[in-house]
Amino acid sequence: MTRYLSLAEYFWLAEQVTGAKGGSSFSALGVPSPNPTPRSRRTGRYGQGVLPETDVARARRWVADRNDRMPEESQDQIRYELDVDPRSLTILECRPPWKPEYGPEWTRFPIARLRYTKARKEWSIYWRDRNLQFHVYDLFDPTPNIEAVLAEVDRDPTCIFWG
């Protein structure tokens, strides 16, 4: 049976492996660093996180697996990240700077948003249009299983996420 790490265990392990305090360096683990967000954005309405920790960990693992599957010659040209908000996860495609005057920051482009409804304990998928607005992906019914949601994004039968 697979055991998933809680976020606290994940950061503790990162500190042990990398020797960095606060989990600031994840390169030794081979996973992209988590996106640090202010405490006010990480907590829900009453000070508790709305998203299930195990689902967030599964989504992070899915993104890490997607990065691992990428051909070696493409790894310096593209990577995938996950933004965690209080009620949603956003899958991002990141590209290196293409003009030196724009600075060293990679461009982050949203691919899909997975929104969690706490009352129904369900995940739903949203796709992004050309104006960076998100819309409900109505070909997939909301489900409590995040792995099914991630599989649908990965499968992409309409080519709306990955092109």
Keywords:
163 residues
Could you walk me through the main structural features you see in this protein, from its secondary elements to its overall organization?
The protein is of the alpha+beta class and 163 residues long. The chain has a domain at 45-155. 26% of the residues lie in helices and 21% in strands. It is built from 4 helices and 5 strands; from the N terminus they run H-H-H-E-E-E-E-E-H. The chain has helices spanning 7-18, 39-42, 53-69, 146-155, and strands spanning 79-84, 88-95, 107-117, 122-128, 134-136. The chain has a 5-stranded antiparallel sheet with strand order 1-2-3-4-5. 14% of the residues are buried. Mean pLDDT is 82; it is low at 22-29 and 36-42.
Brief sketch in words of this structure:
The protein is of the alpha+beta class and 163 residues long. The protein has 4 helices and 5 strands; from the N terminus they run αααβββββα.
- The level of helicity is 25-40%
Total number of beta strands: 5
SSE order: HHHEEEEEH
Structural class: alpha+beta
How many helices?
A: 4
Mean pLDDT: 82
Biggest sheet descriptor: 5 strands, antiparallel
Main β-sheet, spatial strand arrangement? 1-2-3-4-5
- Radius of gyration from CA coordinates: 16 Å
Morphology? globular
What topology emerges from the helices and strands here?
Layout: H1 7-18, H2 39-42, H3 53-69, E1 79-84, E2 88-95, E3 107-117, E4 122-128, E5 134-136, H4 146-155
Antiparallel strand pairs: 1-2, 2-3, 3-4, 4-5
